[in-house]
Amino acid sequence: MLKSFRAFCLAASILPFCSSRILAQADGVDVTTTGSKWGEAIAAASPKKPAPTAESTYDSRALRLESDFGRIRILQGADGLVVGTAGIFKTANAEKIVAGSARAETEAKLFRESHRRGALSAAVGAVTLVVGIVASSSNANNAATPVIMIAGAGGMVWGARQLNSAYSSLSRAIWWYNRDLAR
Length: 183
Fold this sequence. Notes:
Layout: H1 2-14, H2 39-45, H3 57-61, E1 63-68, E2 71-76, E3 81-86, H4 94-97, H5 102-137, H6 144-179
Antiparallel strand pairs: 1-2, 2-3
């Protein structure tokens, strides 16, 4: 039972650092084309969009997110200029990036606040969990050891939820910013 609990705690401590794609965008690739027999039918039924021009306001200023190993990059325009990065312990200055859209700035503030709380809670929870694991491995039959481990795991879970909420707010901020851009 103790080994399975330790494995669970280890998995929970690694979870915030796992890579996930928040928003993937294939530049220059027609996503309607597939390798199946239905690819031609899907391509024929899809409306053809004119190619965007480089000097277009929207195409040069629109934002998107890309994620890689726990780090998020905020990219601008079709060329993918990196305008901000965020990670577990680094917060992008999203308010400056989305300036000009009131709703986007509000969501960016929520991102910053939730990210700060989440990162702090996850870090304190991880340290508390490690202290509990070290204390339990010393065979010190102390009743407080499981409580410390549970408190650490709980702090990490709460911190991960706050980080998830923060990244959702960042995604909404970028959506509102893009919505308010001139086309």
